[in-house]
Every structure is written in C-alpha cells, then in structure tokens.
Automatic annotation (TrEMBL):
Keyword Transcription: yes
Keyword terms: DNA-binding, Nucleus, Transcription, Transcription regulation
Ranges for domain TF-B3: 21-96
Protein's recorded name: TF-B3 domain-containing protein
Naturally occurring in which organism (per UniProt): Ambrosia artemisiifolia
A GO CC term assigned to this protein in UniProt: nucleus
Gene Ontology MF, one: DNA binding
Length: 135
C-alpha cells in the first residue's frame, strides 16, 4: 500500500519547530516537507527567514552527506536571540518561495509573539546617532 504523506501528515508549505535547546544552531526540516516542496532538488543554500515586518535573517539550508536529513543552520542563533525565543515556544515556518520563509512564533500558552512590540524594544535599545558639526 502506498502511503500518501501529504494526506497522513497534512504536509504543505508549512512546518513547525518546538524550541528545545537555546544553544542549538540548526532547525531540522521534516523530510516530507522537503520532498513535497523541493521534489528532491536542493534549494539555494542561502535562505531568508522573515518575521512579519520586524526583521529578516539569512540562514543556510543544509543536508547530511547521505541526503536523508535536512536543516536550516548558520544564522538560526540570531533568530533565537532577536525574537527572544525560549524553550517550549513553537516557531512555524511558511515557505513563501524557494528561498524565503515567513516565520510566526508562539508562546507555550498559545499566545503569538508580538513582533511590533519586539520592534519597539529594539528601537528603544538602539542608541541615537549624534552628528557633531564643527562650525
């Protein structure tokens, strides 16, 4: 009997990741998601992840030598830090095009992360640039 992964696991253009390790430098990409969306053709190594209008990060798409494991790496720690992700939070990755993902994050109680609030905090923490002009 042929197992249709798309029906059984409802695979489409999204996958989720539950944050377990704050020092992890990669996110595993489900094999069913990979084959459904990329059809065994490796995507561009450079992937852009975007959290609403808040921010974009460049991460790297990688795979194991035997081609059986896929992951996002090389920049994931910046996403963890900038979005202030914590253990047991869930991040949903939505494939927008071959090399771009939109991400949405949820607290462990199900509340969505407010990216606008994060942007305000980031703006407040950024020192103002002062230009001194000699006269």
């Amino acid at each position: 009997m042929f197992l249709n992964l798309n029906q059984k696991y409802n695979i489409g253009n999204c996958f989720f990741y539950s944050v377990r390790d704050l020092s992890s430098d990669y996110v595993p990409v489900p094999r069913a998601f990979y084959f459904y969306n990329y059809h065994d053709i490796f995507p561009s190594k450079k992937i852009t992840t975007q959290a609403g209008d808040f921010r974009e990060w460049e991460v790297t798409f990688g795979w194991s030598e035997n081609g059986k494991k896929y992951f996002l790496q090389g920049g994931w720690v910046n996403v963890l830090r900038d979005l202030r992700l914590r253990r047991k939070m869930v991040v949903v990755f939505k494939l927008v095009c071959c090399s771009r993902y939109e991400i949405v994050a949820y607290h462990k109680d199900g509340r969505g992360v407010d990216f606008d609030e994060l942007q305000q905090v980031a703006n407040a923490a950024t020192p103002a640039h002062v230009v001194v002009i000699d006269s």
